[in-house]
Design goal:
single chain; about 290 residues; alpha+beta; 9 helices; 10 strands; globular; disordered N terminus; disordered C terminus
Length: about 290
């Protein structure tokens, strides 16, 4: 009887996880720049190029022939329509020619968590002119503090120019065309972020709190020193239209965060108190948000 009771208790515990929380609220993740210890561990983790060849992560942002500043964009799985929209908008607003106009040599690199054999498809789908790498083990994502969720968040970002349904349809078509590669897109729950490296150190970063939480393009232009984009309204124009400036998401030396509330321990922006808190035992939900399958 005691054994049956123990098994019943174990079964009840295993069923206590509510999968619906994966679709609700934002992750309570902070935007502190990685510690030197974490960065050292991440530096030697391998990333894969389009031909499948391996190289250490550090080779993307330091070493001979590498730009003084390197902006690394971590995207979700390679079939994610949200991230494809982001890379497409980024590539249209920040071109290689515009980077050449900056006083400091600057480059952009994209990293996804799928198989390298899908990089060619991703490049075509996003019209991305920047190098794209794969890191299918997700160890690099973990080391740099990026978490996992399926939540859409409560607001569609400005960088998404089409509906969610249109993005889902494109993703389905890409998956069918990929054939056996359809199952190699990467972990559906993994979210990414953006990290700005200067002389081998992270000086600014943002970690996604949901699947549509990449930093908006105007913020990226500001931290890179490119100013307002051709389709971006200036603060005065936005005020005339009654539209407020979107809040910056990232944290670091390159951005003035004086007006952001900070966590006294971590020194970074405090997340919404209604957010989900992800722990080793699962996700604790504080408030409902939009959801997706």
């Amino acid at each position: 009887m005691a054994k049956v009771a123990e098994e019943s208790s174990a079964n009840a515990a295993s069923c206590s996880f509510d999968p619906s929380t994966e679709f609700q609220g934002d992750l309570a993740v902070f935007d502190d720049v990685p510690t030197q210890e974490n960065l050292d561990k991440a530096a030697d983790l391998p990333v894969l190029s389009v031909d499948g060849s391996s190289q250490p992560f550090r080779s993307l942002y330091s070493g001979e022939g590498v730009a003084h500043r390197v902006f690394v964009v971590f995207v979700r799985h390679f079939f994610c329509g949200n991230c494809q929209s982001y890379v497409r908008s980024l590539s249209a607003s920040i071109t290689p020619d515009s980077l050449l106009s900056l006083p400091e040599p600057t480059s952009i690199v994209v990293v996804g968590c799928g198989s390298p054999e899908l990089i060619h498809m991703y490049t075509e789908a996003t019209q991305c002119p920047f190098p794209i790498y794969a890191e299918p083990t997700r160890k690099l994502y973990d080391q740099l503090g990026m978490l996992r969720t399926l939540s859409l968040g409560s607001k569609q970002p400005d960088y998404m120019r089409s509906s969610i349904l249109a993005g889902v349809f494109r993703s389905m078509v890409q998956s069918v065309k990929a054939g056996s590669g359809a199952i190699k897109g990467g972990d559906l729950r993994q979210v990414g972020g953006e990290f700005l490296f200067e002389e081998g150190k992270v000086v600014w970063c943002h970690r996604m709190k949901n699947t549509r939480d990449h930093s908006e393009i105007p913020e990226l232009r500001r931290i890179l020193g490119l100013g307002h984009g051709p389709d971006e309204k200036t603060p005065s124009d936005a005020s005339k239209d009654g539209a407020g400036k979107a809040a910056d998401k990232g944290t670091g030396d390159s951005v003035d965060n004086a007006e952001k509330p900070t966590n006294p321990t971590l020194g970074s922006a405090v997340p919404d108190e209604k957010a989900n808190v992800q722990t080793a035992g699962g996700t604790t939900n504080g408030a409902a948000a939009t959801s997706t399958a």
